[in-house]
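Slide 14.
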Amino acid sequence: MSQIAFFEHLSRKGVVREAEALESARGRDMAGEIDWASLTRLTPSDFADELADFYACARIKRGELPADDFAGGRLSRRFLKDERLFPFADDDGGLLLAVAAPVEEETLLAIETALERKARIAVATADEIDAALAAACGQEQAASATEIAEAGSDDLDDLRDLARGAPVVRALDDLLRLAVEQRATDLHIEPFAGTLQARLRIDGLLKATPAPPMSMAKGLLSRLKIMAGLNITERRLPQDGRARIVVAGAEIDLRVATMPTLYGEGAVIRLLRKGSGVVALDQIGLSQRDGDILKRNLQAPFGMIIVTGPTGSGKTTTLAASLAEINEPTRKILTIEDPVEYQVPGVNQTQVHPGIGLTFAIALRAFLRQDPDVIMVGEMRDAETAHIGVHAALTGHLVLTTLHTNTAAGAITRLIDMGVESFLLASSVRAIIGQRLVRILCPDCKQPHLLTAQDIAEDARYASLGFVEGETLHRPKGCEWCNYTGFRGRRGVFEVIEASPTLRAAIGPKTDASELEAVARGEGMTSMAQDGVAKCRAGLTTIDEVFRVTMSM
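Slide 15: predicted structure.
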């Protein structure tokens, strides 16, 4: 908090009247009411000098506050007088905020929200700010503006709430903290008729969580927009931005996406844990056969390895684990990603930036001039990227990438649909990994269940997946450790196709995915559903989870 930090700054300077006043100051700081005059031995002018030193900012002297450049906009004049704040334009048209005491982040954020501009701090004495406000507005004009604000502007009332009690700031911080603590990947803020809904996506499923009142909706969205560098006045169009926060010492990257709805703006915040450790390839859930195929092909000098699946199926985790597996000083590895979710030491990682023209295709072309051994392309989004990627795989580079398809075999037909010649794919593709994520049963509370004839008779899924009477499966129960869901964490279920000579021969311009899948099955491929069954038998997950992620296939 700025006030406590400034108090400690003054203590180091030896200008605090009583050392024991710190605890008193801390208590009053929570209410925003520290009496600086009684706590220090400084004159108002000396106090302002110390404050300017603390902020490393300009010290505005008497007569230097330009009343003609007052930039208070729709801010309540009473608010400015109570807080001893004077916003004004500098010579370059920027916004300066003269303060007479330490200003909390919430107050500064509220002012920037109302004025729709970023502000820089300057320091003056309380008397100097009072005089400047009086000169800029006049006593009668200031009183009139206050009455108008109190009578007809909810936004200004909300602003005062933000600045004084900061309920909106605390509400959003609490939601983000809860999302991090519960390992959520996404936070949804959704307005409906008369109510605001908040939901967390945990282990792939959305879960409702207590939300702030609807009256805070605009404030929450405005704070999010400022954090993410978005236009806070634009409420009619979707916007995307990024921000970074620190929770419990951990850096969290946020991807913020807003969307106008019938009842106001909603937002989805993707939470990416910066510096998250890369999972070892042996720990992502590959079977012995599938793991051996992937490791063998990762050692190839050229070719393409494709990971397929829908959004949120763990493709990036598999790619990061694969890169870590082959990351050696003898290899130069380049990646182009959106965003960079895992930082891999020794790997040159680049994030796309379409706003300046840095797309997957542009980066991939540049990579070919960087003498790489391995290239990772976060996603084959368009035909140009696909063509360049296949060309790179055929010219002595190992290329790892992802596609959005339902099955591993579907990756071939998708690339053909994107315009890549089938004979080029037959020559370049080495392996394709299809995957989904299933929730893992909580090891502390899962319960064994002996499968009975009645179970099999009542649920046809058991027989369809090959389960027989007498097998032991496990069911979720719920405990404090798993937040009473019965599950904690996720693991992949996979199907891996290796491009054998037989499969390469089956790839043609009009090849159907089912034909390729039949060839792969004949060579020993296990489907995602079969891999899920194996994980059920191992006590890792449930039949419901396997069907949830594979029933569309």
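Speaker note: The chain has 23 helices and 19 strands.
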